[in-house]
Design a protein that fits this description.
With about 150 residues, this protein is mostly helical. The protein is about 65% helix and about 0% strand. The longest helix is centred in the middle third of the chain and has 25 residues, at about 50-75.
Length: about 150
């Protein structure tokens, strides 16, 4: 969607950033829709449907999103967010997100049945015994046919 010079915009901006601004506006619309969806369900009702790990994920994503939006707000106000405490907060949240990811990965990893593993290894390894030693010493010859 291109704007013509006849459009009655009160603000002018360089035409080369038009596509970026359009994409940004669409992204804001998506965020708005997601927030409306999240706000349509009460938090307690939502948390009741989730296990503790999923609850932690939801909380972390929510707080990370809020802090990220504050980061953008600071940038629009001319404040360098890299020098603001919000940067440390985002790093702290990322640390917890990684911890939750590690827990989820461990939960998804296959559990080792030690008994089955030891039986598998024991049966897979050939252990010579007296009977096997006798048969292995004499070379195997072709089977003789029994006469009926």
């Amino acid at each position: 969607m291109e704007m013509s010079e006849d459009d009655s915009n009160t603000e002018e901006y360089p035409t080369e950033i038009h596509d970026y601004l359009t994409a940004f506006e669409k992204s804001l619309g998506s965020v708005d829709e997601m927030l409306k969806t999240m706000m349509s369900v009460s938090r307690s009702e939502l948390l009741q449907k989730l296990d503790p790990l999923e609850q932690a994920k939801l909380d972390l994503v929510s707080v990370y999103t809020l802090n990220s939006m504050f980061w953008v707000y600071l940038a629009t106000q001319g404040v360098n967010p890299k020098e603001h405490p919000v940067k440390q907060e985002l790093e702290r949240i990322r640390t917890y997100m990684n911890k939750v990811k590690e827990i989820a990965d461990k939960k998804m990893a296959g559990k080792l049945d030690k008994g089955a593993a030891s039986r598998f290894v024991r049966n897979a390894l050939w252990e010579p015994n007296e009977k096997n030693e006798q048969t292995s010493k004499s070379p195997a010859k072709g089977k003789k046919r029994q006469k009926d």
